[in-house]
Amino acid sequence: MTWYEGVFLGFLQGATEFLPVSSSGHLVMGQELLGVEVPGLGFEVALHLATLASVLVVYRARIGALLAGAARGDPAQLRYGGLLMLASVPAAVAGAGFGDFLASLFDSPAVTGVALLVTGCVVWTARAALARGPAGRPGPGSAVVVGLAQAVAVVPGISRSGATVVAALWRGIGVREAAAFSFLLSVPAVGGAALLEVPGLVGEAGGAPAADGVSAAVLGVAAAVACVTGVAAIRAFRAMLESGSLHRFAPYLWTAGALFLWFLGAR
Asked: How many Å separate Cα 22 from the centre of its chain?
């Protein structure tokens, strides 16, 4: 892998992981349209950890307060941490019970095209959800609903950030809290996905090339680009959510999904 291919994949991962356009869907489209493939588990784990670092950077104060409050037994912080754990359960159950089936969906590109169309419809409803009135904070019921949305987003083409934030908005959660809950929920989701991949890695000690034939330098550049791009994407997402313009991603998703399905049918 060349350094510019690493930059491209790092940028693609960082941008699409947090914008409501589906990183997995764009990976499938990139493989089909451009012949670009993520070169194995080592590279994938590095990009996952880089995007995890993006969340830690943007929400470092919130995460620090959550950990410190939980350590001293603060009921509010313990409750919030419990809600994040509750919301993480559906995706964990889906992965454990239907992992092979969900993995097989990545081998069916048409699924991604249809899922992008669905994501567009979901994101389009954000405008109506924002117009509903007073906004509150997450509770157990909302955590379950957001967690179910995250579980559905395992399907390539369904955006995790889009599905979880819009689900939170429909549950009456405020804009900032919806974004915070979604992105903090990605910490166990992304971190867990990376940990599950670690046993499959075959590393080499010393100054040997990184796993999967990618040099350590290219791996580092790709991860750095993914992290920086991820930070920018999170901030852009929050700005659009607060300005009520998140639904503007819908036309892009509809166009991308329709054109991808047309491409699959025409080739």
From this structure: 7
Amino acid at 39: P
Contact by Cβ (8 Å): 54, 234: yes
CB-CB contact of 62 with 180 (8 Å)? yes
Encoding tokens for residue 197?
């991949």
Nearest CA to 150 out of 176, 177, 182, 127 is that of: 182
- What is the C-alpha separation between 204 and 211, in angstroms, rounded? 7
Lowest mean pLDDT among 33-42, 66-75, 195-204: 195-204
CA distance 142 to 169: 10
- Residue in the block written with tokens 């429909």: 170
Confidence bin at 56 (pLDDT 50/70/90) = very high
Place of tokens 């166009």: 255
The residue that leads in pLDDT, 189 or 104, is 104
**Residues forming a β-bridge with 136:** 173
136/207 Cα distance (integer angstroms): 52
Mean pLDDT of 33-52: 77
Closest Cα partner for 152 from 209, 98, 79, 221? 98
What are the distances in angstroms from CA 9 to CA 18, 38, 229? 15, 8, 11
Decide if pLDDT at 20 tops 90. yes
